[in-house]
Amino acid sequence: MNDMVKMVVVLTLLAAASGFLLSFAEQKTAPLIEMQVLNNEQWPTLQTIFKDADNLDTLVDQRFKIDLGDDENVTIFPGVYNGEPKAVAFEAKSTGFGGPLGVMVAVNLDTDEMVAIGVTVSQETPGFGSRAKDEPDLANQFKGLGLLQSFSVKADGGDIDAITGATVTSRAVCAAVTSAGETYKSIKPEILEKVKAI
Amino acid sequence: MAKTLTQEFTKGLWQEIPPFRLVLGLCPALGVTTTVQNGVGMGLATTFVLVCANLLVSVLRKVIPAKVRIACFIVVIATFVTLVGMLMQAFTYPLYGMLGIFIPLIVVNCIVLGRAEAFAYKNPVLPSIADGLGIGLGFTMALGALGAVREVIGTGCFTVPFGPTLTILSADWYTPFAFMVQAPGAFIGLGLMLCLMNLVPSK
Amino acid sequence: MKRRSFLGLVKPTLEYTTLAALSSIPLKKVPASKTATFMVPGTMEGTDLLALKVGDEVKAGQALAPIADSDDYAISTIAGKVTALEPFTDAHSNAFIAVTVEAADDQEWADSLGSDPDLAAVAANLQNGPGALCLKPVLDPETNINTILVLGMDQDLMTTAVQYAVKTRGAYLAKGIETLKKITGVSEIILVVPSDLTGNVQGCKCTIKEVGASYPSANPKLVMHNIVGKTVPAGKTLEDMGVLCLSAEAVAALGESCETGKPCVNKIVTLVAKDGEALNVQVPVGTPIQDVLDVKRIALNDGDRLILGGPMTGVATYSTSLPVLPGTDAIMVQDGAKLPEIEDASCVNCGECIKVCPAKVPVNMLVRFLENQLYVDAAEKYDLLSCVDCGFCSFVCPARIPIYQYIGLAKFELSRMAPEAE
Amino acid sequence: MGDIIVLIISCIFVNNILLAQFLGNCPFLGTSKKLETALGMAMAVIFVLVMAGAITWIVQYFILDKFKLEYLQTIAFILVIASLVQFVEMFLKKSIPGLYAGLGIFLPLITTNCAVFGVCIINMKEGYGFLETLVSSFAYAAGFGLALILFAGVRERIILARVPKPLQDTSIGLITAGVLALAFMGFKGMV
Amino acid sequence: METNKKFVVSYAPHCHNGDRISKKSYNMMLAALPAVFFGILQYGVAALSVICLCVSTAMAWELLFNRIMKQPPTIGDGNAALTGLILGMLMPPVVPWWVIFTMTFVTILLGKVVYGGMGGNPFNPVVLGYAITRLSWGVFLDVDASLAPGYIFDFNMANPIVAIKSAVWTGAGADAAAAFPPQVLLLGQHCASIGTMFGLGLIVGGLYLIVRGYLRWELCLSYLAGVIVTAALFSAFGPEGKYAGAAFHVLTGFTLIAAFFFMAEDSSTPVNLIPMLIYGIGAGVLTVLIRNIGAYPDGVIYAFLLMNILNPLLDNIRPKALGKVVENE
């Protein structure tokens, strides 16, 4: 019986200590991690797609979140052109060849046309799918197209030229942009409201 | 029988170097060694967990009842794995991104649990740390070596851990043998390295 | 020998040599030799007192039993004086005592058999006669023999000795079968002969069946399976099923012995020369092989091969002074320059052996296990014991693996292991 | 329904847990020398993984997410799996001794089988619903079992071949596993 | 019992049908000649040098490994040369020398040597070596890319199997296949690798092998049947005009060389009837599946690797041996 008590006590104490340690660590690292994510995943892309924006240096700080329901939310980065918050960028995800693939879509709030897109996270096969991130051919095709439609590669009957040898990745990008359009449609009023504050 | 601290430390670097001599920890060895940096990073993360877990298990070895020791080990290991995951996210985020699921998977790495059970639970603190450090660094070396072979042959480049990527084999005359950085290349590369290690005597 | 045919689409076959094809071959009689040697099972080690000594006088037809209190003996086919007693080990590691008898001028016969012998007398006198008539299982109360299978067909290629006996000694065969029925009390006797000899055995009062002409359909286990319709379980013998298998030549010898009252000692042997030309000779059991070879003036050189038995299952031997044994159906010599070589290659999995194996043994897998000395696994999983020892797999193997030798070794090792396990 | 089938094919073949994601290699090499052990391990993994998938899903969505404890995922999951294995072992021993005789020796190995833990994490990462989690757990485990059994078949034969000494055992096992991974790449793009 | 002569004492049987491994190798090379000759005629001296380099380097590597492992040379059995020749047949007319060097090295090392030489290999060495090389240096093994500089023919210069792949995605596979009628494919009036251009030559060679018994008809026919039936099902029940028909699939890509030459590799193929049929049909089905819905233009290589893996399990399906005791447990 004594053994039993000891076992329970030791395990409980260990688990409690572990819980405390981890919650402490979590509190300390959470803000650091958020900044890391921003800096590593979204910032490089934001830099390219908003390279002409006035607020390039401050747009990360100007970001805001919009609730999508179901505990999901999306972070919106506003881009200011000529003093006006004309465009916003946000990220949409889909699945590519080797895992998740994120696409940052910048959209003009007046015309609903895409300003630019850029691939954020990609674990695609080196040399094939990863070209989606490095080579601008695919992303450039979206420039100026209206966001509120669905996209697909030519092989599937759409208008987008796939990257040679990386059809799956190209499709994933199309899917991500299409889903970005759907998100955009549902949250546009909120975005407009929020950007007014800037 | 009693070994010096140095012996406890150095045995992990050659005689019992995982995964070559101790065939354990194959998953990370296969999964993350597409570059040297990934291999070394994974190895260091494992070393951190190994040393901390060995330390704590050794300190608590008289308190932990034998019947629930495995559960206790797992709690200890899982705590440090979570911790190392958080630290890596906070400070070396790109590396964390590359290693992905393999960081939480350190918790089921047989090397860590194996050392806790086979060594730390039976030995005093200092030898346990030496053992953990030795095995961990040996694992790091092995992963780094495998990463180097795969990266150099497969891409022609060499990523200095936490440093720049150097081009070893120039694209002018070398077309990378991309097979090596793909999944099958991992298995075959490790298999052939294991064969080479078998040709070298362990002592 | 038959080469691989151009058409490899169909399963390769080997045809038995039949007498029909060789009808012109006359039977040559080998004169009685000066010395004869008889093999008695047993070892001389640890036996100080041999019941037989050098210098003992023996009569023709007398039992030679060198070890006292033993059932093992051989029947001397000549009268004379024992000149040597030597240990001998055969290719299957069985120990024998070789008893050499020098012929006396006067060939006196022991009075042993009589015209109306009983089972014990026949068993005692004919087991070393031509064809080795072994009736021990009938005497053994533990085996319940209910069928006797008389094989009127040679089991190996190029051999026609048994067929010759069936063809020329049909009357003795009929008499032998009748005697067998009487002395053993077994009513079910099946005589198996090739199709061209069915006419020669019409006088036999038993079931007569035809055997196919392609090798190895005369193998006893295959005869049981294909002709009698009973399958011998793997690892069991015909005796375990209550079937006694006898050579037709032995049964004919029994018939002759009953007629003459003294044991028949003359064996028919097919002699195959280097060029493949064959002839049947009649020779007393125990005669040195050299005497038989002299009939055709066959000269052997270094590196040649001397085989007791046929080309598929015969045993290569090293000396021409060895005797003709009761079971020696053929003596074959091969030119050393033309021997097919054996290689230490690993199985290439071509499947030729699978095509030809009459017992459907997965030879391709079996040989891998045997090569790794995993005999128990080989027997349990890969049907080692189903093998009927025909040697066909080795004959067709393009990698030239000595499969038949592997199998023989494996069976030997297993039989050695079995008592240890108990 | 179509999605489910795609998910199954993806988990078994295209993203095979062993050959494409490198998880569970220690038991893969350890229990593949004989076909019978491979079968036992495959069954044990399927059995445990489906249960672990379901329970970790519940733990994730009803405990961790609810109380904002996502950072305890690793520790929670491994404890769930370890105690599940213990529980299954005791339950089988008492209630279904026949099954226990077959799976018993493999159950303790499963705690440190990273395929089990990995699949649970992947399920959460992909954000699968409960049904999808069940299907994906089963399919991943089936993929593990399939690869293991196929590999064991090949390996039984390799053991009999004249493999050069330094390559024997694990080394040739890894090389052969590499060819398996290569072959499974043939399924790429099928979903 | 003495004799002064020394006879050869060996185990039975004392005769042999004279067959040997090298005979099969040389017969297979003979059977490959029509297709190879035609390829060299079409593509010229470049193709000849590719073939020669493949054969010679394969033999050289084998010899080198024999030396390293201190074994007697095994190139005499012709298997290395045959492996090299078949690899050469899969090559486009122009391939850099170092690709061939590496490819034959990988083929001999991973295909044969690590498994202890011929017979031990669970995978078809040619298929394995080609798959690894294709994965790394696919562009050098691509017929279209290889033909682009310097070759001009008066027929359709696209590699059919590649041309149809992109057409299938747009739903026009059948139309694309119509550009390559069977007679064109049979008579080598299309672009393909050196040894797979001349369909008729491969068929003639294959029939020779079947007649000689060096290739099991069960394997060959079941494979072709698998391809034909699957392709026919796809074109019949798939979207209208999306998938090419059976004849196209049989006569393009590596189908024919696989049916007649890959299948004749013994070590990786089954030996019993039912396993042979399953093996062939399985490989055929997978071939067309990968071509029609997979990521690669030609599925033959992966289909064979996958079936090689299945082979040891298939081989357990076998007829009951004589007198085998079935335990009732």
Automatic annotation (TrEMBL), chain B:
Belongs to the NqrDE/RnfAE family. It is a multi-pass membrane protein. NCBIfam families: PRK12405.1 (NF009070), rnfE (TIGR01948). Its main location: membrane. GO terms for cellular component: endomembrane system; plasma membrane. This is Ion-translocating oxidoreductase complex subunit E. PANTHER family: ELECTRON TRANSPORT COMPLEX PROTEIN RNFE, ION-TRANSLOCATING OXIDOREDUCTASE COMPLEX SUBUNIT E. The complex is composed of six subunits: RnfA, RnfB, RnfC, RnfD, RnfE and RnfG. The keyword Transit peptide does not apply. It is found in: Cell membrane; Endomembrane system. Part of a membrane-bound complex that couples electron transfer with translocation of ions across the membrane. Keywords: Cell membrane, Electron transport, Membrane, Translocase, Transmembrane, Transmembrane helix, Transport.
From TrEMBL, chain C:
The keyword Iron-sulfur applies. One of its GO terms (cellular component) is membrane. Transmembrane segments: none annotated. The keyword Iron-sulfur applies. Residues 338-368, 378-407 form the 4Fe-4S ferredoxin-type domain. Pfam families: Fer4_9. GO terms for molecular function: 4 iron, 4 sulfur cluster binding; electron transfer activity; metal ion binding. Keywords: Iron, Iron-sulfur, Metal-binding. InterPro entries: 4Fe4S_Fe-S-bd (IPR017896), 4Fe4S_Fe_S_CS (IPR017900), Ion_transpt_RnfC/RsxC (IPR010208), Nuo51_FMN-bd_sf (IPR037225). This is Electron transport complex protein RnfC. It comes from Desulfatibacillum alkenivorans DSM 16219.
Automatic annotation (TrEMBL), chain D:
GO terms for cellular component: endomembrane system; plasma membrane. The chain crosses the membrane at residues 6-26, 38-59, 71-92, 99-124, 130-151, 172-190. Keywords: Cell membrane, Electron transport, Membrane, Translocase, Transmembrane, Transmembrane helix, Transport. InterPro entries: Ion_transpt_RnfA/RsxA, NqrDE/RnfAE, NqrDE/RnfAE_oxidrdctase. GO terms for biological process: electron transport chain. It is an enzyme of class 7 (translocase). Its main location: membrane. It holds the Pfam family Rnf-Nqr. Its EC number is 7.-.-.-. It comes from the Bacteria. It is found in: Cell membrane; Endomembrane system. It is a multi-pass membrane protein. The complex is composed of six subunits: RnfA, RnfB, RnfC, RnfD, RnfE and RnfG. Part of a membrane-bound complex that couples electron transfer with translocation of ions across the membrane. Belongs to the NqrDE/RnfAE family. This is Ion-translocating oxidoreductase complex subunit A. It comes from Desulfatibacillum alkenivorans DSM 16219.
TrEMBL record, chain E:
One of its GO terms (cellular component) is plasma membrane. The chain crosses the membrane at residues 30-61, 95-115, 127-152, 192-211, 218-237, 243-264, 271-290, 296-314. The keyword Cytoplasm does not apply. The lineage of its organism: Bacteria, Pseudomonadati, Thermodesulfobacteriota, Desulfobacteria, Desulfobacterales. It comes from Desulfatibacillum alkenivorans DSM 16219. It comes from the Bacteria. The keyword Nucleotide-binding does not apply. InterPro entries: NqrB/RnfD (IPR004338), RnfD_bac (IPR011303). This is Electron transport complex protein RnfD. One of its GO terms (biological process) is electron transport chain. Keywords: Electron transport, Flavoprotein, FMN, Membrane, Phosphoprotein, Translocase, Transmembrane, Transmembrane helix, Transport. Pfam families: NQR2_RnfD_RnfE.
